[in-house]
């Protein structure tokens, strides 16, 4: 290998973006890393990150109605329907009518789904677990609060501050 090819390129320092754009850049980076890890999981485990999260939650709450799972995931039921259908077609999740309300479906894991419902290296969950283990509880709580506020703001749940009002 030539010296030129082996030398690391020195990256220029990041420009000052300001608080909002810098925070957005970090969130964008998390989103990109989630997508990249999800694609890798699909090729190694046969399921994407969102599919695996559904597997883990259905494993934790057998018989959960689809609507409750959607609320738990902060997802629209139609978004969840596509994920559940793919997991059903792969023989990972089963759906049965709710005996108390035939309009609702209850979800459960198949044997194949239970095999996937275990802690696994190389998943989004494993990376987050490692991070949580090395983060002080106060910082985790602060991160939860900020992420929840961002989600609420993006979903329109919190009113926009009025002119002259502090957010």
What's the SSE blueprint?
Layout: H1 3-6, H2 19-45, H3 49-60, E1 64-65, H4 66-72, H5 77-89, E2 93-98, E3 101-109, H6 111-116, H7 124-133, H8 137-154
Antiparallel strand pairs: 1-3, 2-3
Output the keywords.
mainly alpha, 167 residues, globular, three-stranded antiparallel beta sheet
Instruction: Please give the largest β-sheet.
Output: 3 strands, antiparallel
Oligomer: single chain
For the biggest β-sheet, the strand order reads 1-3-2
The number of distinct β-strands equals 3
Q: Provide the structure class.
A: mainly alpha
SSE succession: HHHEHHEEHHH
Helix content: 55-70%
Q: What distance lies between the first and last C-alpha atoms, to the nearest angstrom?
A: 55 Å
Shape: globular
| Average predicted local confidence, pLDDT | 89
* SS field, number of helical segments: 8
| Beta-strand percent range | 5-15%
Protein architecture, described:
With 167 residues, the chain is mainly α. The chain is 58% helix and 10% strand. The chain is built from eight helices and three strands. It has helices at residues 3-6, 19-45, 49-60, 66-72, 77-89, 111-116, 124-133, 137-154; strands spanning 64-65, 93-98, 101-109. Strand 2 (93-98) and strand 3 form a beta hairpin. The protein is globular, with a radius of gyration of 21 Å.
């Amino acid at each position: 290998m030539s010296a030129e090819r082996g030398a690391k390129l020195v990256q220029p320092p990041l420009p000052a973006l300001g608080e909002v754009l810098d925070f957005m850049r970090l969130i964008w980076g998390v989103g990109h890393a989630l997508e990249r890890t999800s694609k890798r999981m699909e090729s190694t485990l046969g399921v994407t990150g969102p599919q695996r999260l559904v597997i883990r939650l259905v494993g934790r709450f057998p018989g959960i109605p689809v609507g409750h799972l959607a609320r738990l995931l902060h997802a629209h039921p139609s978004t969840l329907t596509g994920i559940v259908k793919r997991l059903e077609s792969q023989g990972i999740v089963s759906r049965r009518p709710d005996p108390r309300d035939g309009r609702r479906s209850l979800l459960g894991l198949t044997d194949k789904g239970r095999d996937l419902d275990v802690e696994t290296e190389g998943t989004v969950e494993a990376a987050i677990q490692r991070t949580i283990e090395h983060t002080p509880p106060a910082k985790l709580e602060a991160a939860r609060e900020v992420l929840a506020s961002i989600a609420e703001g993006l979903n329109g749940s919190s009113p926009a501050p009025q002119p002259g009002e502090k957010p």
